[in-house]
Structure formats: structure tokens, C-alpha cells
Design a protein that fits this description.
With 454 residues, the chain is of the alpha/beta class. It contains 18 helices and 19 strands.
């Protein structure tokens, strides 16, 4: 009861319901005054090796979910999640917990209480190396103080170094973008890492990435769900990961629940993974470091699958290189292109062949295979004529110009002249002292049956 009195003195107009043992605040000040950490301390209780917190008749506990680095093949962090229980020890949904606050001040209190609880538990955690991921409510960010001095005080009190903290900000609109930017800057200046959470949900955009410069971006699980069933969505996921890496962000994919989704995550090039497939959140904190995830086996499965079905380039080179070099040899001797490339163009996997000069400009028009000509989509007819087109921007062309005599091959990409996925072979050669490059588009991921038809 003494602890309750001390807590109530910190908040005017607070009261205790007659049938409850825990205080419930009815009105809280809009700006909590120092010492904020000491005001919240009586709400925490030590239970064995862990801490719990009391809030509006509920008992709050910390659950941790491991986050894995695919490349390191081990845990690199833990996301702290709040778990609430009523007086009968029945679980209360987090959604219902966060609906309890009725003012900005109460939102602020609950947010800080959760962070206090998580850090108190993590400070005594056996794993003293990895990151602790903490969520920050967007409502608290937009309504809170410009500098969250509470958090700095909390780290000093618990002794947890700021570089071990990743502050997660949910990706959604805020009423005050400048306040959000200042808040993120504060945590970064404090020495914490910052993360944008749920990127890919309804309000995502790269402008926020550019404005906030987070260290880590957590992709919303909906991106993974779509990529599981839709090959185009999988390619988009891979592209998003690539763009985020180019923006200087590490990428975490959450919501991984199956082996197939783990394969998609690895293939997308994400840095970190999180989800039920690897480990569920647990309030049994002492047991978490001892759980083992077989990332070696997962990567072994990926390598086998990747060699067989996901990377056609080596198979294509081994199959087409002799024919491709034969066509180049005929061209270098002066044979017309339609004759030199006739064997290639008769293959059902080959779409088109074209010649380019040393400046990347196409010579004459493209030679299109009969199969491709029959299947051309009239909607893309404005793109079909490529005479004098300039392809110098393409990496495969620059490589062929820089390294004549060597066959180069791309990864699958969208062909602008036909709006279909293809890979391109390119080979630089000399004709009458002038450098030229023969390019050959091949349908992406051809089957072994298609190859044998040639």
C-alpha cells in the first residue's frame, strides 16, 4: 500500500477501485515531470529472475522473440513484446491493453512503463551481446516531449548501453513530421540504433526512409505473404530489399512462418529474419538463449534449390555458349546477321538477337525469332522498333565492350522491348578492326524440356 501511495502522489486525481489492489489513474498531467523513472519504479515488481509491472489491474510481462542474421547463422537481437494478464492470469490481447489509455498522458505512461519493464528484464538477461528491439508508439512520438529525457535516465539507471538498443517506430502517418524527425535524431544522438517498423504496410513510402535515415527497416509480413503466392510480388520484394540496401539500411523480414517463406527471405537478400518458423515469443526469458535454430540446414536447402531451379545462368551458358560463339565467329567473317544467327533464333528459348557498336548504339534492327514474332503483344508495339537504340546504360553491354571475347550473362530482368522476363548473353568481337557486341535475349528460367527442343 505504501508503494501505491507513493505512486498516487506523483499523479493528481488518481484513485484505486475498491475491488482492485492496483492503482488506476483517471487523470494524468500532459507533461510528466522529473523524476519520471522514480515515479514509475513502484509499478515494477521482481518475481524471481524477472520483473513484472502493474497497470490498471493488469500484470504486464516481457516476452522476447529472437531475431536471426542469415549470414551469421545466429541470434543478433530480440524484440521485446508486452504480454498482459488479468487478476485470474488470463491473457489480455495487446490491442485491448493499448486501448485502455484515455489521454496522451496515459499513452505516454504506458509506453514508458513497457520500455522500463523490458529494459529491466533485458539488463539481467544472459545474452549480453545482442540488440534489444523496443517499440515506440507513434502517438507518443507525436505527443511526447521533444527530447525523451526519460529514456536517457532509464538507460543510466539500468546500466544498459544505448548501442544495444534498437528503437522501432511504427510506419504510419504522424501529425507532426518534424517532431518525429527530432525524436529519431534524439535516439540516434543518444547512441541507439533506429528502425522503421511495418514498412510495406498501408502508409509506407521511401520518403520517410530518406527523411529519417533509419539503421534498420522491418518489412511488413504482408509483403512476404504476397510473395509466397505471387512470383511478381516476390520480384518486387527483392527489388525493395535492394533499394533499401542502396539507401544504407539493413533489412529485417518479419512474419516468417514456413520453410518456403524462409527460402523467399534468403533469396530476397534480407539481412535478418524473425517469425514463428524460427522461434515464437516467450515470457520464459531464461530458456530463450538455449533454443537452437538450424540455419545451417536451411542454407543448405537453399543452396540445393538455388542450383537446381533458381539460377539458370550457368545452365544457359553451358548450353548456349558454343552456338553463341559460333554466331559471333560467322559475323566476324562477314556473314549476314540473319544467316549467322539463324540457328540461335530457331531455338524456342531464344527471343531475339541484335548488334551494338562500341558506343552502345544498335546497328540495324533486331532479329526476332518466329516464336517471339507470333506471340508479340500488340499493346507494346511502340517499343518493338529498336534501330539506333542506345543500350550503353546496360551493364551487360558495358562489360562486353570492356572485355571482348568473354561471354557475359545477366540475371533475369524485364525486357523493355517485349515486357517479358529474359536473360541476355553478350559477347564483344572485332569486325574489320571495329568493336561490335552481339546480344541474345533468352527467356528467363527455361525448362530442361525447352532446352532439349533445340
Amino acid at each position: 500500500m505504501d508503494q501505491q501511495i507513493g505512486l498516487l502522489q506523483g499523479f493528481p486525481d488518481a484513485f484505486v477501485y475498491p475491488d482492485q489492489k492496483r492503482p488506476m489513474s483517471r487523470t494524468l498531467p500532459e507533461q510528466m515531470t522529473a523524476p519520471e523513472v522514480d515515479v514509475l519504479s513502484p509499478m515494477l515488481t521482481r518475481e524471481g529472475e524477472s520483473w513484472t509491472a502493474d497497470y490498471q489491474g493488469l500484470t504486464l510481462r516481457t516476452a522476447l522473440q529472437p531475431i536471426f542474421s542469415i549470414s551469421h547463422k545466429r541470434v543478433v537481437g530480440y524484440e521485446a513484446l508486452i504480454r498482459a494478464f488479468d487478476p485470474d492470469n488470463a491473457a489480455v490481447l495487446p490491442l485491448h491493453l493499448f486501448e485502455l489509455p484515455s489521454s496522451d498522458a496515459e499513452n505516454l505512461l504506458l509506453d514508458r512503463l513497457c520500455r522500463y519493464l523490458h529494459i529491466s528484464n533485458y539488463s539481467g538477461f544472459q545474452d549480453q551481446l545482442n540488440w534489444l528491439f523496443l517499440n515506440v508508439s507513434p502517438r507518443v512520438v507525436s505527443a511526447g516531449n521533444r527530447a525523451d529525457s526519460f529514456f536517457g535516465e532509464l538507460l543510466k539507471k539500468t546500466g544498459l548501453p544505448p548501442h544495444r538498443i534498437v528503437m522501432e517506430i511504427v510506419e504510419q502517418p504522424t501529425d507532426d513530421a518534424e517532431r518525429l524527425r527530432e525524436t529519431v535524431a534524439y535516439y540516434q544522438q543518444l547512441g541507439c540504433l533506429t528502425a522503421i517498423d511495418d514498412f510495406g504496410a498501408g502508409h509506407s513510402n521511401f520518403e520517410r526512409i530518406w527523411n529519417l535515415s533509419p539503421d534498420i527497416v522491418k518489412l511488413d509480413r504482408k509483403l512476404l505473404t504476397r510473395a509466397t503466392d505471387d512470383h511478381k510480388a516476390r520480384q518486387i520484394l527483392n527489388g525493395i530489399v535492394s533499394l533499401l540496401h542502396q539507401s544504407g539500411c539493413l533489412v529485417l523480414l518479419e512474419g516468417v512462418e514456413t520453410h518456403d517463406q524462409a527460402m523467399i527471405a534468403i533469396d530476397a537478400g534480407v539481412d535478418f529474419v524473425q517469425g514463428f518458423y524460427f522461434s515464437r515469443p516467450s515470457t520464459a526469458l531464461a530458456d530463450i538463449p538455449h533454443k537452437v535454430t538450424d540455419l545451417d540446414g536451411l542454407l543448405r536447402d537453399y543452396k540445393i534449390k538455388n542450383r537446381i531451379t533458381r539460377d539458370p545462368t550457368q545452365q544457359l551458358i553451358s548450353y548456349f555458349e558454343d552456338f553463341f560463339r559460333g554466331a559471333v565467329e560467322k559475323l566476324s567473317q562477314g556473314m549476314p546477321m540473319n544467316e549467322a544467327c539463324s540457328f540461335l533464333l530457331n531455338h524456342p528459348a531464344v527471343s531475339r538477337c541484335y548488334l551494338v557498336d562500341a558506343n552502345g548504339v544498335q546497328i540495324d534492327d533486331t532479329m526476332v525469332s518466329d516464336a517471339t514474332a507470333r506471340s508479340l503483344d500488340p499493346r507494346f508495339r511502340p517499343l518493338e522498333s529498336t534501330t539506333s537504340a542506345d543500350w550503353y546504360r546496360q551493364q551487360y553491354l558495358r562489360q562486353a565492350i570492356a572485355q571482348p571475347g568473354q561471354v557475359h550473362i545477366t540475371t533475369p530482368y524485364l525486357c523493355i522491348t517485349g515486357a517479358y522476363m529474359c536473360v541476355t548473353l553478350s559477347l564483344g568481337y572485332y569486325h574489320k578492326g571495329e568493336l561490335r557486341v552481339l546480344c541474345c535475349d533468352i527467356l528467363a528460367n527455361p525448362t530442361e524440356t525447352t532446352l532439349r527442343k533445340g
